[in-house]
Design a protein that fits this description.
single chain; 195 residues; alpha+beta; 8-stranded mixed β-sheet; 4 helices; 22% helix; globular
Length: 195
């Protein structure tokens, strides 16, 4: 008698963002299953301290440890990561997303969604909703045009997709009254982020 076939659980996508405080940062990861989802499957919040100082031209030195910390508990679940920023900078220089892609052993594609252009960056402009201002999409591990189609198809009627707004709010609100965080995770779709 043969055993029943094993089905792999569906892979998830992750939107990441980081909010910097005086001596620490709060990193957020919003997990979702389909590009058109309007609610996360799970939200992970991680407090990171100490945080490296900002160095012009080397932003990744400060942000990469925060992203890796929040990804650690969910990385095996992921098939795609979306960061707030550029994957590639001008003249073929690596941006935050390229450094993240390399740090993950080039195993999970990374899409960068930036709200402002970087001179010479090889991004694809994506216009969503009624906004005249585009988002700038770059990628590592998949073609930039495919990445742009994914971002264009994400839920939301405005320039910024719903779940990218949600991850920004999650890291900014964590630790505020009614939104405690102690370095952990919250499962579910409500706005409170607790451990």
């Amino acid at each position: 008698m043969s055993s029943p076939p094993q089905h792999a659980s569906p892979r998830l996508k992750a939107c990441l963002d980081v909010d910097y405080r005086d001596q620490e940062a709060v990193a957020a990861c919003v997990l979702f299953a389909a590009w058109t989802d309007d609610q996360p499957v799970r939200t992970v919040i991680e407090r990171v301290f100490p945080v490296a100082p900002y160095v012009p031209g080397a932003f990744y030195v400060r942000e990469l440890p925060c992203l890796l910390a929040v990804l650690r508990p969910v990385l095996p679940l992921l098939d795609m990561i979306i960061v707030d920023g550029h994957v590639w900078l001008g003249d073929g220089r690596p941006g935050l997303g390229t450094h993240l892609y390399a740090a993950l052993g080039e195993q999970v594609p990374v899409i960068g969604v930036a709200k402002s252009a970087f001179p010479g960056a090889p991004g694809v402009d994506v216009r969503r909703g009624q906004s005249a201002r585009p988002l700038y999409v770059t990628a590592a591990g998949l073609e930039a045009r495919e990445a742009a189609r994914h971002i264009e198809g994400m839920h939301g009627a405005h320039r910024l997709p719903t779940l990218l707004k949600r991850v920004d709010q999650a890291c900014r609100q964590a630790g505020l009254p009614g939104h405690p965080v102690s370095g952990g995770e919250h499962r579910g779709t409500d706005e409170n982020v607790n451990t």
